[in-house]
């Protein structure tokens, strides 16, 4: 199983084109075919200073973060990238039906990474090859699905967004600064009953190996190797207009949702996806038992009043893999099991139109006592104390995989988890924040945001310094936003690392790291 030790998101969430609660609010009969286009173009640049924390190398001889190649003692790296995201909705005439597409015409292209051609052949940048796309293509189709609103409910099929609640477990990645985004090949039906939305979905999570038919299409060679996912959910949701109307009337508004999902795979063909130096033929002997089963329960709640909002999400994941070997004929005795949990609470005190608002966000993600955080464990099977990352499973000695990983698009900071570790896992965190509107005119406004994030690991053994205290990160941002869809944001963050990132073997203390970013964005 390609994602053997990676417990993926199983479901989706309450936002237009974002998941299982997208129930056709924009669908109605039209007299003509209609097109709607929306999206954004962003350009941003980062200046990174001392993100390796000047604490020396890990036992594998690597720094915690990249350093300049020409000067291992260098402090500063910088880059800039851009993305053009386009959402297209095509509404059919005389039916409550639509086809929707999300395409990134340029997706996080690092400026200068496709250099100008050699003299005499032109002066324009060469196109970039994007993984999973045709060579020399800058087009990535992220979503393409059809939907229809029937008298009994909403039906959709295709590749669609996958988000839920706060987005800490499954995140559609539609925010302006998101880099990833979860999508699913899904068939979903949503209906309304006793004041709630009820949904059922089936996901084609993974299939293969594939073979070509004579007509040029592909065929799944063995259905027993497919990874299946089934999701059931119920939700109580309000639209934006209803929320605003109730808030202005000083009435409480409670919204909530709960889903349960189950994923399984009976057999597997590792030869179809493992990297090998020579081509390996796929034969009946390539099939082996896997016995993968995983389930998740996730609850989401949002309560809003006239001058406050509190939103929370909590997830529990259970999983079991009966056979963890990747070599047919070489079977292992021990099963791998997982019990993971995570949650987050966000609060805002002050009405949206108030000049100053603030709150406290907090959360946790379960950990695993194995060395390293397990955010991006890679292919290594060695568990080495002092490493930033590493495998959380090492059969037969360690058969537990208990660290819960947030979606990387749910960010609680700008440096520690966002840049150095990669995502939130094995941690407790608390984050007070405030936002002030400094200037406001008819066509634009200037706002300032400040926050601070204090983090602690669940297991000291997971950290490079063998200490649970991770760090304190301070962040400030200024945003100039125009009502015509253009905004400029400048932000600065500084991380003060604690003993969890010290280097006891070399008697080195971790030193502060800094990040500065400027982002330009055009919305349409």
Structure in words:
The protein has a domain at 54-76 and 181-523: Porin, CATH 2.40.160. The model is unreliable at 1-17 and 130-136 (pLDDT under 50). The protein is built from 2 helices and 20 strands. The longest helix is centred in the middle third of the chain and has 9 residues, at 240-248. Helix content is 3%, strand content 46%. The strands form 2 sheets. It has an 18-stranded antiparallel beta barrel.
Task: Give descriptors for this structure.
524 residues; mainly beta; 2 helices; disordered N terminus
In this structure, how is the largest beta sheet organized? 18 strands, antiparallel, barrel
Number of strands: 20
Mean pLDDT, all residues: 88
Runs in which pLDDT lies below 50 for 5 or more consecutive residues are 1-17, 130-136
Pairing-aware structural class of the strands and helices? Answer: mainly beta
User: Could you state the order of secondary-structure elements as H and E?
Assistant: EEEEEEEEEEHEEEEEHEEEEE
Return the CATH class of one domain: Mainly Beta
Q: Which shape, going by the Cα principal axes?
A: globular
Tell me the fraction of residues in β-strands, as a range.
over 45%
Quick gist of this model?
This protein has 524 residues and is mainly beta. 3% of the residues lie in helices and 46% in strands.
């Amino acid at each position: 199983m390609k994602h053997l030790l990676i417990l993926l998101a199983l479901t989706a969430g309450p936002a237009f084109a974002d998941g299982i609660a997208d129930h056709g609010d924009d669908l109605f009969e039209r007299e003509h075919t209609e097109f709607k286009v929306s999206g954004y173009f962003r350009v941003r640049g980062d200046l990174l200073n001392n993100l390796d924390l000047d604490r020396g190398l890990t036992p594998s001889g690597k720094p915690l973060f990249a350093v300049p190649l020409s000067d291992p003692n260098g402090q500063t790296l910088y880059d800039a990238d851009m993305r053009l995201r386009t959402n297209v909705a095509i509404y059919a005439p005389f039916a409550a039906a639509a086809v929707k597409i999300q395409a990134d015409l340029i997706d996080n292209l690092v400026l200068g990474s496709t250099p100008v051609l050699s003299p005499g052949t032109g002066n324009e940048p060469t196109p970039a090859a994007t993984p999973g796309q045709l060579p020399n293509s800058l087009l990535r189709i992220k979503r393409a699905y059809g939907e229809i609103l029937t008298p009994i409910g909403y039906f959709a099929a295709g590749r669609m967004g996958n988000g839920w609640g706060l987005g800490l477990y499954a995140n559609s990645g539609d925010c302006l600064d998101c880099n990833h985004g979860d999508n699913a090949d899904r068939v979903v039906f949503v209906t309304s009953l006793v004041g709630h939305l009820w949904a059922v979905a089936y996901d084609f999570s993974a299939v293969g190996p594939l073979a070509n038919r004579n007509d040029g299409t592909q065929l799944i060679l063995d259905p027993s190797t497919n990874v299946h996912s089934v999701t059931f959910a119920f939700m109580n949701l309000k639209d934006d207009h209803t929320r605003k109307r109730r808030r202005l009337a000083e009435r409480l508004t409670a919204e909530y949702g709960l889903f349960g999902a189950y994923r399984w795979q009976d057999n597997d063909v590792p030869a179809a996806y493992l990297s090998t130096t020579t081509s390996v033929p796929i034969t009946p002997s390539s099939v082996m038992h896997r016995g993968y089963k995983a389930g998740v329960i996730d609850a989401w709640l949002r309560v809003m009043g006239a001058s406050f909002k509190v939103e929370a999400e909590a997830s529990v994941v259970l999983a079991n893999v009966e056979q963890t070997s990747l070599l047919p004929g070489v079977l292992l005795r021990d099963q791998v099991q997982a019990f993971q949990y995570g949650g987050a609470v966000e609060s805002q005190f002050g009405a949206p139109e108030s000049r100053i608002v603030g709150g406290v966000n907090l959360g946790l993600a379960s950990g695993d006592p194995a060395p390293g955080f397990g955010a991006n464990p890679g292919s290594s099977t060695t568990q080495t104390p002092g490493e930033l990352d590493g495998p959380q499973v090492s059969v037969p000695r360690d058969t537990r995989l208990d660290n819960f990983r947030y979606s990387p698009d749910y960010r609680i900071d700008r440096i520690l988890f966002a840049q150095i570790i990669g995502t939130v896992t094995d941690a407790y965190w608390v984050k007070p924040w405030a936002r002030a509107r400094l200037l406001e005119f008819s066509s634009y406004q200037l706002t300032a945001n400040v926050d601070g994030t204090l983090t602690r690991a669940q297991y000291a053994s997971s950290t490079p310094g063998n200490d649970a205290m991770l760090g304190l990160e301070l962040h400030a941002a200024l945003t100039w936003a125009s009502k015509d869809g253009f905004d400029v944001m400048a932000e600065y963050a500084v991380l003060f690392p604690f003993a969890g990132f010290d280097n006891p073997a070399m008697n080195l203390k971790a030193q502060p790291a800094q990040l500065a970013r400027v982002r330009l964005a055009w919305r349409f």
